[in-house]
Amino acid sequence: MGSFRLALKIDVDTERGTRLGVPALMRMLAEAGVPATFFFSLGPDNTGRALRRIFRPGFASKVTRTNVLAHYGLRTLLNGVLWPGPKIARRHAPILQAVARNGFGVAVHCWDHVRWQDGLRTMRADEVRAELARAFQAFESVFGVRPTAAGAAGWQANAFSLAAYDDAGLLWASDTRGRTPFLPRAGGRVFRTPQLPTTLPTLDELLGRREHPRLGLAERVLDGLRPDALEVLTLHAELEGQREQAFLRELLDVARARGIPFVRLEDEAARLREQVEAIPICELAENGSVPGRSGTLAAQGARLGAGSPPTG
């Protein structure tokens, strides 16, 4: 029987999530002795502008079943609409620094979450680079070092963003949904920055769905683990760090009872760099989808082979 490996990826999308959710998650994970990597939104919190997604198929039903107002708060849902979105890294640098100081991994999520998630597909290459440059500069101003990893808002990625990662010298990324770590190919080019995709369903994809009753939900998520595979579960500071803390506590308790070890994404990425020739090369499917989530996202596509991509 093979062994399990579970990594926690924590997306921090909003000012409220940073202020309230991140400290709570740090406490819970530190008490349990569980590692995790936090992916920070660093620029303006313009969450209110996401309401334009109301015309996207499936968005309205998701808002209803996941109780978005309760999880995000009215003020957050008006950020960037009735008043300017607060600059997250500038306002909460001490919280971000505490995450790193307490031994957790830190990485870039984005500059402006809504702009990236809703607008990447229409951005020119120079606009993508400028958006990432703002995020990388903000990260460096907070932590004093350049970022080594990123995980895109809304799992949105394309050839422009992957090229910017390569040029920035990132060591790994987690932009996608998929099955295994892979090197992505997009626009006819294979990129050097390996993807460690989210492999398990997120809580907001399961909440309120008849086939996924809340009782025992954490157990059913862990039932999806595969032996000898790196499983990546994405949490959100706005959910598991606030009103859904009970889900995370249950997850940690069940994992402990089952003897499931938690691993660091950074360590898994370092291990991959030692065996780069074995990493599969897979097409980046920009129009992927997952049950319970509206819209499309970047996903691991067909396997094309294995081996190191060009270095140029």
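(the above was protein one; protein two follows)
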Amino acid sequence: MKIIDKVKKFIKEKDLINSDDKILVGVSGGVDSVVLFSILLKLKASMDLELYVVHVNHGIRGANATRDEEFVKSLCDKNNISFSVICEDVPTFAKENKLSEEEAGRIIRRRSFEKIREEIGFDKIALAHHIDDNVETFFLNICRGSGISGGRGMNSKNGYYIRPFLCLTRSEIEEYAGENNIEHIEDETNLEDEYTRNKIRHNILPYLTKEINKNSICHINSFMER
């Protein structure tokens, strides 16, 4: 099954998107969010959707953060999609609230998306989380002492948040980007092991896939769904 057909099937099964929906899309410039934007653009005409992009500049990566912002702005201009950028000082917010920068960034992004959604009166917020992200969340939850509910990970629909890519692995998204020549930006912090999620992404999941079972990630995701 083609990736776009797989996403359409998932959207229908989970009732994530309806005709005439107004959808705010979080776009960082990375491959996951840019491919999500690309696929929603393809659905825009057939489902009569209205799209609006929000990009959050976390105030962490200096010139590279400005580069990402300009990339997303150019992407939206090229496709005639309205766009907002939110600039925040995540390191300061993290220190003031005694949080990791990883958690502070997540809170800031959510606040930004929700603020813009309310201002423009949109129906939903689409995020590009995928199967690998979900399995990373599983390990984060159980390692931090979660109860049984933590085993569920992310929901495909949670209030006005939707995750149309929870049917795709990271490799499938990267494959789609390559096949369709979709340009994106690589956030260099994703290559580091400073953040807890990256430690799981770079060390635990590859080990499970290589040494235990090549389908480990999909099997764990199926377990979470059940």
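Reviewer note on protein two: The mean pLDDT is 92.
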